[in-house]
Amino acid sequence: MSLPIVAIIGRPNVGKSTFVNRLAEVRDAIVHDEPGVTRDRTYKPAFWNDRDFLVVDTGGLVFDDDTEFLPLIREQAMAALAEASVAVMVVDGQAGVTAADEAIATWLRQQSVPVLLAVNKCESVEQGLIQAAEFWSLGLGEPHPVSAIHGSGTGDLLDKLITFLPPTEQIEETDEIRVAIVGRPNVGKSSLLNAFVGEKRAIVSPISGTTRDAIDMQVERNGQRYRLIDTAGIRKKKQVEYGPEFFGINRAFKAIRRADVVLLVIDAIDGVTEQDQKLAGRIADDGRACVVVINKWDAIEKDSHTIYEYQRHLEDRLHFTNWAETIFVSAMTGQRVEKILELVNRAAEQHRRRVSTSVINEVLEEAGNWHSPPTTRQGRQGKIYYGTQVSTQPPAIALFVNDPNLFNDNYRRYIERQFRQSLGFVGTPVRFFWRGKKLREVERGSANRATKV
User: Fold this and answer.
1) Is 15 annotated among the ligand-binding residues?
2) Nearest partner of 197 among 43, 417, 395, judged by Cα
């Protein structure tokens, strides 16, 4: 059963995103004193009494202006209203009734969805009642004075709101794979999301910085549920000014950290840039599984050597994620888009994989037979006693040795190559912890002292 949806509607700068943050009890939606910050529709889970629902933030509605993104924002708001069980129109109690409020109210009265009226910015209870009274003229029923910042009045509004929602039923939880879609501006991230979903879920525009907030969307394929997270395009830090883009990029970095698998989208025409390399490094550092998606492949003139030359280019430039699988797609035509999820499944499986200690030690023994650890000029040689996996997501393996300083970077890379050749781990980083004998003795001594106490 899908959760019922509550659409938040209103003109720009009345506090819709702040109101969404209040209902969802998070601070995820970007709030900034500037019209047009919210553009796409973003979904946040919320709960009140015995009801679970999704609250949908939408861009500010303007009906008499077709410049820049405003027609696309209207399209997104209308799509949110079409799937909603109830809508909440948010107005500014301090500004009073405006012509834009009247236009939106007229449009909402023509819809079949029930509408509640939230008069925001009513910080004082007594003054709020006076401010709200003016909004009876909109013809949407009782105006509810609320303060999205302080939370006053929202409880009464929610009590009324949940009467339009079905009771929460026990829903069997399905294992969900969280997939973050990241990349530079204008590489086709939102187009890719729309191609997955099969509808215009995110606004697509050639204007850089169109997507500002992280947009979550659930899709299901062959019984597997995916949460796709479209993110703002990430530019070089020195080019980003404080404001909506700054917050959007921070949301993108958070999306990487909460994802199981990251789709690193690269523009096939531009190739791998320095910024793409930095993103690949961040994905590896955060320990996320990864699939490299080369988008706009349809725009490349090809011959029998093109794909091999491009793969060599990727190997040279993306050494941070040389363990990730690569796929060449076109979000515009849909070419190979569905196959991305096959790679996502494989990467997620390897990211969560656990290997027994006996298998790990077989790999170590074979690696040592082929290439023994290095010996110093003083005749000291590194020894690997045994290894064991200590965690997953990403897989982490502790190697217990006589002295970690005896193992140089070349040998450590050799050990990782041997593990990947023997065990796979395609699509996920693998972390190795080299633990020396002295460290183990210190830990053992601490444990003994704790036992005596």
Assistant:
1) yes
2) 43
Does residue 38 surpass a pLDDT of 50?
Answer: no
232 a known binding residue?
A: yes
Consult the annotation and say whether 375 binds a ligand.
no
252 is in an annotated binding site: no
Give, for 144, the enclosing helix (H) or strand (E).
strand 143-145
Residues 311-320: tens digit of each pLDDT: 999 999 998 8
Beta bridge partners of 54: 5, 45
Q: What confidence tens digit (pLDDT) does each residue in 333-382 have?
A: 989 998 999 999 999 999 999 999 999 999 999 999 999 998 888 888 99
Task: Please tell me whether 13 is known to bind a ligand.
Answer: yes
Bridge partner residues of 350 (DSSP): none
Say if residue 312 carries a ligand binding annotation.
no
Cβ-Cβ contacts under 8 Å for 428 (sequence gap 6 or more): 289, 290, 323, 347, 350, 351, 353, 394, 395
Q: Are strands 215-221 and 224-230 parallel, antiparallel or unpaired?
A: antiparallel
**Phi/psi of residue 354, nearest 5 degrees:** -125, 130
Domains of the chain: residue spans and CATH: 5-164 (3.40.50.300), 176-351 (3.40.50.300), 357-452 (3.30.300.20)
Query: Which helix (H) or strand (E) is 105 found in, with range?
Result: helix 99-109
Residue 303 is labelled as binding a ligand: no
Q: Which residues contact 324 (CB under 8 A, 6 or more apart)?
A: 264, 289, 290, 291, 292, 318, 347, 427
61 annotated as belonging to a binding site for a ligand: yes
pLDDT score recorded for residue 243: 44
17 is in an annotated binding site: yes
pTM: 0.62
| pLDDT for residue 151 is more than 80 | yes
| Residue 10 assigned ligand-binding role | yes
Quick one: what percent of the chain has pLDDT higher than 70?
79
Q: Was 14 annotated as part of a binding site?
A: yes
Higher pLDDT, 384 or 441: 384
Residue 189 labelled as part of a binding site:
yes
